[in-house]
Amino acid sequence: MSMPFYVSPEQLMKDRADYARKGIARGRSVVVLQYEDGIAFATENPSRALHKISEIYDRIAFAAVGKYNEFENLRVAGVRYADLRGYSYDRKDVNARGLANAYAQTLGTVFTTESKPLEVELVVAEVGDSPAGDQIYRLSYDGSVADEHGYGHVVMGGQAERLGTVLAEEWRAGMSLPEVLSVAVRVLGSAGEGEQGEPRAIAASQLEVAVLDRTRPRRAFRRLTSSLLEELLAVAPPPA
Amino acid sequence: MDHAASPGRLPGAFMTPGSSSFVDFLQGHAPTLLPGMRDLTGGEAPATPHGTTIVALAFDRGVVMAGDRRATMGSMIAHREIEKVFPADEFSAVGIAGTAGLAVELVRLFQLELEHYEKIEGTLLSLDGKANRLSTMIRGNLGLAMQGLAVVPLFAGYDLDRGVGRIFSYDVTGGRYEERDHHSVGSGSVFARGSLKKLWRPGLEATAAVRVAVGALVDAADDDSATGGPDESRRIFPVVASVTAAGYVRVPQDELGRIVEDVLDERRAEHRRDRRETGGIDR
């Protein structure tokens, strides 16, 4: 009988993390931005049916990058989690924090106990009555959670670091919806094809955009279709 | 995917691909939470509040549904402002007659079922799909219905594919029947149906349709003790909602107040005329 290989835990975790990061880096980025009336989500996604941004519950939305089948599975689990909780208690008792914790546990357990980590990165966001009440949680493949509230903007995906720098320069608190959307489109377009590509202009038809609009009565989630998006982008002021 | 092995993690049932139905998910994961799944011993059902008359009618752009506000327990009025008409989702409404507690729970689950499907699939169920789903859920309550705790809903919605309003009625076994033009369920429905037959005409516009619905409820309350009429002193009016291509809209209280006053004024005027013509004392 041959001796089993010894691999140090550090090496094992590092390999898994590298593997997950590589998988995530292949996908296109998602940006999440707070604006005065809610939270906007945008990504470059030519598909009309396979969404990266979805509604989870009345005031909660989900955005993901990485491997579609894996985050789709997590999304469905989140909808079931939220609906079951709302049905057993009350709709008010469903919140983003609880969901983020459940996701974190799931991602963490898969990362440490299963042979392959999930190649996904998620954002779970909830709109409150005012921008101060908004909650944005970012979850990584290893189950780590970051409370992004206070920054007001998040980028996930392939070129997250580069896009994050661009976004941090352009975003400021209290922007209107057309303003944050034009920021989002410029940020997404600044990731050219390839590592050092030129900035591109992304057409509205190539974008998937949704908002959690705090002014809507019950279900705050709304998708912005390309015709509506074009109108919104047309009224946006040019970059300062 | 062993739940017990890693507490805190989302249970395996949550992560299993497949069903877009919340009811199916509950059946597998937490069947005790489903209404109608409880074991009950035989015997007579205890007295519980009952909801009564619901009317629905089609008009030129959709459907109107209305329900009175009374819940009765035997000969007693159990509640004066119960709501029996609810939005099922954006493009449909459900009204309930029968055992109030079970009916309200059924509506809650039905609303959730439609919303759950919408979120998972990213698209709405067809109106027929919604109607069939409700059928299955009523059938699940058959055991309780046999003991006297029946729930009989009325379902109406705007069919986005065909561009018309449609009305569905049900029996306690979950039988689904599509109704033409108008329908009513509940103890006052005999009188409401007669009223609808006389007041309804094709191509009604929205406000006129609301008037017809209120009129039918007034007629039902007139002859059925379990149906409450508009309560003018407390200003409790029926719940009236319309469903059109623009979605479910509940008629606002002040607008409804005016329509109710109008209908009642008209009835009073007719009554006075009637008394004058027959040489009564009310000159």
TrEMBL record, chain A:
Q: Which SUPFAM superfamilies match?
A: N-terminal nucleophile aminohydrolases (Ntn hydrolases)
The record's Gene Ontology cellular component field reads: proteasome complex
What Gene3D superfamilies does the entry give?
Glutamine Phosphoribosylpyrophosphate, subunit 1, domain 1
* Keyword tRNA-binding found: no
The pathway this protein participates in, as annotated, is: Protein degradation; proteasomal Pup-dependent pathway
**Which regions form coiled coils?**
none
**What does the UniProt keyword field contain?**
Cytoplasm, Hydrolase, Proteasome
How is this protein's activity kept under control?
Answer: The formation of the proteasomal ATPase ARC-20S proteasome complex, likely via the docking of the C-termini of ARC into the intersubunit pockets in the alpha-rings, may trigger opening of the gate for substrate entry. Interconversion between the open-gate and close-gate conformations leads to a dynamic regulation of the 20S proteasome proteolysis activity.
Cellular compartments annotated: Cytoplasm
| CDD domains (UniProt xref) | proteasome_protease_HslV
Q: Which residues cross the membrane?
A: none
PROSITE patterns associated with the record = PROTEASOME_ALPHA_2
Q: Which GO terms describe its molecular function?
A: hydrolase activity
Xref: Pfam families = Proteasome
Quaternary form? The 20S proteasome core is composed of 14 alpha and 14 beta subunits that assemble into four stacked heptameric rings, resulting in a barrel-shaped structure. The two inner rings, each composed of seven catalytic beta subunits, are sandwiched by two outer rings, each composed of seven alpha subunits. The catalytic chamber with the active sites is on the inside of the barrel. Has a gated structure, the ends of the cylinder being occluded by the N-termini of the alpha-subunits. Is capped by the proteasome-associated ATPase, ARC.
Q: Which family does it belong to?
A: Belongs to the peptidase T1A family.
- Cross-referenced HAMAP family, in alphabetical order? Proteasome_A_B
Q: What does this protein do?
A: Component of the proteasome core, a large protease complex with broad specificity involved in protein degradation.
| The protein, known as | Proteasome subunit alpha
Q: What is the species listed in this Swiss-Prot or TrEMBL entry? A: Cellulomonas chengniuliangii
